[in-house]
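Re: [ENG-882] Designed sequences occasionally contain unexpected residues at chain ends

Forwarding the minimal case from QA. Structure tokens:
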């Protein structure tokens, strides 16, 4: 197995302290948003044999195993991250596989440069993802029932939002959600900024269920995404709990530290809370306009101590082991590639001693014995 040297991405929304605290190093004062573990060409992990993407490119079947290559092609199908949100991320949605392929082919055909700011599809893959909380973790996930959102908006007593309240109460669920989101994102920017300012002041005054939206407005004053965010379920994860974000489900991470895993894709359609491009027509094509429960996941324990976060897709499989001191070592060898990440305590993985925030790549079929006193997350695929 290979010890990984991972890149930390300094996005503006990142916490200045959470990742340094996990790693046991001094903060730099700069935001540290995500630490990437994997073979994504944007920031591949380093190994003693070279960048992980190049190691895999040299011998895909040896590193990934024949089954994974046959199922997903000659690349690592997932990207594992430690995510540290100190401010809300953009409100966003991801396409399904068919939508991603269609969108990518269309933008390629139209000759839109891959790095263009208005390009939506960087690749032809979908991007389901799972976030597992290491600390209390706040987020938004899926549409709240229209009637409940109508009550929330009505409680603000903001005249310019009352038409949205009426729409939410008067129409069937799908039509109500579609019409209100379309109206919010298509409204005159100056008029919407004024409405957001009024709503933010009311949220700050009322507190309680409104407090998360007051905080969002503090970070993104005047942004239409503040009102769009109020259409969504607010959820607070406790450590060890997780959320699965499937295609078409609008969501945003607000605050906290977690382990995130996703299919290896950069495809994001933004709804707001960002200075980046918002393609409203394409967004409305992708969003699933249906109310849903956030569906908080708790791990399912197996007899050998593995706790699995069950999801309906195969590009990734995330589980964890909470290892008590003196426990019998576990051999985690699989016929598929793995990344093992320590998040607490000290874990021995093969010849590598891992402290919190350290990780290894285990090629398919390689012995992967772990022991120690700590928590280790296991990322692999279903093939």
């Amino acid at each position: 197995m290979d010890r990984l040297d991972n890149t930390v991405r300094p996005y503006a929304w990142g916490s200045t302290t959470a990742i340094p605290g996990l790693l046991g190093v001094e903060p730099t004062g700069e935001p540290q948003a995500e630490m990437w573990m994997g073979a994504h060409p944007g920031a591949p992990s380093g190994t003693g044999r070279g960048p992980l993407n190049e190691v895999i490119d040299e011998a895909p079947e040896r590193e990934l195993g024949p089954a994974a290559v046959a199922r997903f092609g000659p690349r690592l199908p997932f990207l594992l991250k430690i995510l540290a949100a100190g401010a809300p991320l953009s409100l966003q949605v991801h396409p399904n596989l068919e939508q991603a392929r269609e969108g990518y082919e269309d933008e390629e055909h139209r000759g839109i440069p891959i790095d263009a700011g208005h390009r939506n599809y960087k690749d032809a893959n979908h991007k389901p993802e799972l976030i597992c909380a290491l600390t209390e973790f706040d987020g938004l996930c899926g549409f709240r029932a229209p009637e409940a959102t109508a009550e929330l908006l009505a409680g603000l007593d903001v005249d310019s939002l009352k038409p949205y309240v009426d729409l939410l109460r008067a129409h069937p669920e799908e039509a109500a959600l579609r019409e209100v989101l379309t109206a919010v994102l298509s409204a005159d920017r100056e008029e919407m900024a004024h409405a957001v300012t009024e709503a933010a002041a009311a949220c700050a005054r009322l507190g309680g269920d409104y407090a998360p939206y007051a905080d969002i407005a503090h970070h993104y004053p005047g942004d239409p995404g503040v009102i769009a965010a109020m259409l969504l379920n607010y959820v607070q994860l406790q450590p060890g709990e997780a959320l699965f974000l499937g295609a078409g489900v609008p969501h945003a991470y607000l605050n906290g530290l977690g382990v995130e895993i996703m299919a290896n894709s950069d495809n994001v359609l933004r709804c707001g809370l960002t200075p980046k491009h918002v393609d409203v027509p394409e967004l409305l094509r992708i969003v699933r306009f249906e109310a849903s429960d956030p569906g908080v996941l708790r791990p399912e324990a197996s007899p050998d101590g593995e706790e699995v976060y069950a999801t309906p897709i195969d590009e990734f499989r995330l589980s964890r082991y909470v290892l008590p001191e003196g426990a019998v070592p576990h051999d985690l060898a699989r016929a598929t590639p793995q990344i093992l990440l320590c998040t607490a305590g000290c874990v021995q993985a093969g010849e590598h001693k891992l402290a919190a925030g350290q990780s290894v790549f285990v090629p398919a079929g390689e012995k992967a014995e772990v022991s120690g006193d700590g928590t280790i997350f296991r990322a692999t695929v279903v093939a």
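QA comment: On inspection the terminal residues look reasonable. The CA atoms of residues 3 and 352 lie 7 Å apart. Proposing we downgrade this to a documentation issue.
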